[in-house]
Write a structure and sequence with these properties.
Blueprint: H1 2-14, H2 19-32, H3 36-43, H4 52-72, H5 78-103, H6 108-136, H7 140-166, E1 185-189, E2 199-203, E3 206-213, E4 216-221, E5 235-236, E6 241-243, E7 250-252, E8 258-260, E9 269-275, E10 278-283
Antiparallel strand pairs: 1-10, 2-3, 3-4, 4-9, 5-6, 6-7, 7-8, 9-10
Helix pairs in contact: 1-6, 3-5, 4-5, 4-7, 5-6, 6-7
C-alpha cells in the first residue's frame, strides 16, 4: 500500500498542468500576505515554529470526535456532534489561511502536492458544512454520512500534508542538523568585511554569514531556516536585520530572531571576537 500511495504522490508531483492553477493562486496569496504583520501572524514566528500544524489539530479533532459520537452515541450525542462539526468548520478559516501562506512560498512538485492538499481540505470543509446544515434540519443520519466522507477526505489530505513536511521538508528548519563548533574558529580577516555587506565563511564545516553593522561584527548561520536560502546573498537594512533573497524572511543580526516571515524559526547566532585583526566565531552560548 505505501508503494501505491507513493506512486500517486509522484504522479501529482509530475503533473505540470497543475501549475496553471497553482502559479496564479500562489501569486494572489503572496499579494494578500505581503504586509509584514499579516505574514508574521500566519507564519508563526511569534510562536517559535510554524503555526499551521498547530491549527490543523482543531478541525481534525472536532470532526473526528463528531464522527465518533455519531457512531457511538446516536441521537443522544446529536447536539454535541452538530456543535463539533460547526466548530470545526469555523476553525478551518485560520487553519487554511496559515497553510496557504506557507504553501505560497513553495515551488514546482511541492507546490503541486500542496495544491491538491488544499483542494482536498476544501472539499472536506464543504461536506462538513453541508453536514451541519442537514443536522440543523433534523437529518442526523445524512449529516453523519456527510461528516464521515468529509473526514475520509481530510485523512487523505493529512497524508499529503505529512508528505510535504516529512518527505519534502516544508516547514522544517534547514539548520536543524548543523553541528556548530563551540571552539573559537578563525574565519576571516577583519579587513575583508565592508559595512553592511554580508560575507560567507566556513566555521568548522558550517556556513556562517558575517556582517559588519554600525562598526560591530555580527554572525549568523548562513543557511536560512525557512527554505535553505543563502543569507550571504541577502541585504542588510538600517534596522540591523538581514533579509533572505529567496522569500524575504528577515532576521535580527544581534540574535537571529525572526522579524519577518515566512521563516518561523530563529536563525542560529554565533559569538564573535576580534583578535589581531582576525575574526573568530563560535556557537552562541557554547
Amino acid at each position: 500500500m505505501p508503494k501505491q500511495i507513493e506512486h500517486v504522490i509522484r504522479d501529482i508531483e509530475d503533473r505540470s498542468a497543475l501549475d496553471a492553477v497553482a502559479g496564479p493562486a500562489a501569486s494572489l496569496v503572496n499579494r494578500v500576505t505581503k504586509p509584514t504583520v499579516v505574514k508574521n501572524a500566519l507564519s508563526g514566528g511569534w510562536l517559535g515554529h510554524a503555526l499551521h500544524p498547530v491549527l490543523t489539530d482543531v478541525p481534525i479533532g472536532a470532526w473526528g470526535m463528531a464522527t465518533l459520537l455519531d457512531v457511538t452515541a446516536g441521537e443522544r450525542g446529536a447536539r454535541a456532534a452538530r456543535t463539533l462539526v460547526g466548530f470545526g468548520v469555523l476553525a478551518v478559516v485560520p487553519t487554511a489561511a496559515s497553510g496557504a501562506s506557507d504553501w505560497a512560498d513553495t515551488y514546482g512538485p511541492t507546490q503541486r502536492v500542496g495544491l491538491v492538499h488544499g483542494a482536498l481540505n476544501g472539499a472536506a470543509t464543504v461536506l462538513q458544512a453541508a453536514s451541519w446544515v442537514v443536522r440543523v434540519t433534523g437529518r442526523r443520519r445524512a449529516g453523519a454520512v456527510l461528516s464521515g466522507v468529509g473526514l475520509g477526505l481530510m485523512g487523505a489530505s493529512a497524508y499529503l500534508g505529512g508528505h510535504l513536511s516529512y518527505v519534502n521538508g516544508v516547514g522544517v528548519s534547514h539548520t536543524a542538523f548543523e553541528e556548530p563548533t563551540g571552539k573559537w574558529t578563525d574565519v576571516a580577516a577583519l579587513t575583508a568585511l565592508e559595512e553592511n555587506k554580508p560575507l560567507r565563511v566556513d566555521a568548522g564545516g558550517v556556513p556562517v554569514v558575517l556582517v559588519r553593522h554600525d562598526g560591530t561584527v555580527k554572525a549568523l548561520s548562513a543557511t536560512c531556516t525557512h527554505a535553505g536560502g543563502p543569507l550571504d546573498e541577502g541585504e542588510v537594512d538600517a534596522d540591523g536585520c538581514i533579509h533572505c533573497p529567496w522569500h524575504g524572511s528577515a532576521f535580527r543580526l544581534s540574535d537571529g530572531e525572526v522579524t519577518r516571515g515566512p521563516a518561523s524559526v530563529a536563525q542560529p547566532d554565533w559569538d564573535v571576537k576580534i583578535s589581531q585583526d582576525r575574526v573568530l566565531v563560535r556557537a552562541a552560548n557554547a
